[in-house]
Write a structure and sequence with these properties.
The protein is an all-alpha fold. It has a domain at about 65-105 and about 115-195 and about 225-300: MetI-like (MetI-like fold). The protein contains 14 helices and 2 strands, in the order αββααααααααααααα. The chain has helices at about 1-50, 65-75, 80-105, 115-120, 130-140, 145-155, 165, 170-195, 195-205, 210-235, 240-245, 250-255, 255-265, 270-300, and strands spanning about 50, 60-65. A two-stranded antiparallel ribbon has the order 1-2. The chain is globular and about 75 Å long. It starts with a helix and ends with a helix.
């Protein structure tokens, strides 16, 4: 009897190994394509970052070492654009998280037409950044024809605020926050709906006020989704470009991504632009590693 069991076990092990082998071969084309899609551009960026190569004189190439990194970091706009990147990312994250929590609390309450409101709430997230930037620039923030200018004139303001000339970084931040607020609100609303009903009933029976209920029950329950929202948004917000380009405020509110673009588009310097791209990648990885560790500690708590 035990010999038959041993044979069955060996046959099962062999079948398992064969199925695993078939699965690996089936996944191989997708893995290879994904690896090529990810690593080939990065490898080319590494190659050009250490090469002296400009579009004005493509024949004059050679080993540049770390000089491309030096020139990029000593660009007159580097410090300003680095600060703009951090301020823009931080400001948008604070705005979307705080606004997302408030919007999630509002949409969690029962009211007539809640389903339609939820559907309309998520719609800005699916609009292309170029389109939304054009709408904000020409229909809302335009100093002559914009809606905000008309509202200011209705209150007696003779010269409405020129948003992109006076407060360019704030204007870009408003546009980006409008795009990402629905995402944060949707994630937090989903997490809020998973809150235990017994906790809600217990807090109501104990006579807890709304602020106490929010502080001791809702906010701890949303801590993990908030960290996930911060991580996802940070990764994408470090690469903001379309809003700055469409608004034509690159010289006033540019970030590192726009500085890399300007090195290639204005200076035609492929090497310096590639070096700037690597610096931006390193910065994004540092921030991502920090946030991943922060999320890991939060999940273990």
């Amino acid at each position: 009897m035990w010999k038959l069991r041993l044979i069955d076990f060996a046959a099962a092990q062999m079948a398992t190994r064969q199925s695993q082998s078939v699965g690996k071969w089936a996944l191989a084309p997708s893995v290879i394509a994904l690896a090529a899609w990810s690593f080939v551009p990065l490898a080319l960026t590494f190659y050009f970052a250490f090469l002296r190569y400009t579009l004005d004189n493509p024949d004059n190439t050679g080993w540049a070492g770390f000089s491309n990194f030096y020139y990029f970091m000593h660009d007159p706009y580097f410090s300003k654009d680095l600060i703009n990147t951090l301020v823009l990312v931080g400001g948008v994250i604070i705005t979307t998280v705080v606004g997302g929590v408030l919007l999630a609390l509002l949409l969690d309450q029962p009211f007539w037409g809640r389903g339609i409101v939820r559907l309309l709430m998520i719609s800005p997230f699916f609009i292309m950044p170029t389109v939304s930037s054009l709408v904000w620039k020409n229909l809302l923030m335009h100093p002559v024809f914009g809606l905000f200018a008309a509202i200011q004139r209705s209150f007696g303001v003779i010269q409405p605020l020129d948003w992109f000339a006076r407060v360019p970084l704030l204007s870009v931040g408003i546009i980006v926050s409008w795009q990402w607020l629905p995402y944060a609100a949707l994630i937090l609303l989903t997490a809020l709906q998973s809150l235990d009903e017994e906790q809600k009933d217990a807090s109501a029976m104990d006579g807890a006020g709304y602020l106490s209920y929010f502080r001791y029950i809702v906010l701890p329950h949303l801590s993990r989704p908030i960290t996930v929202v911060i991580l996802i948004e940070t990764i994408f917000l470090l690469n903001i470009f379309a809003e700055i380009k469409v608004a034509s405020v690159g010289a006033l509110a540019g970030n590192l991504t726009y500085l890399v673009f300007s090195q290639l588009n204005d200076s035609n310097d492929v090497g310096v632009a590639a070096a700037g791209g690597l610096i931006a990648v390193v910065l994004a990885n540092i921030v991502s590693i920090f946030l991943v560790r922060l999320i890991g500690r939060n999940l273990e708590a």
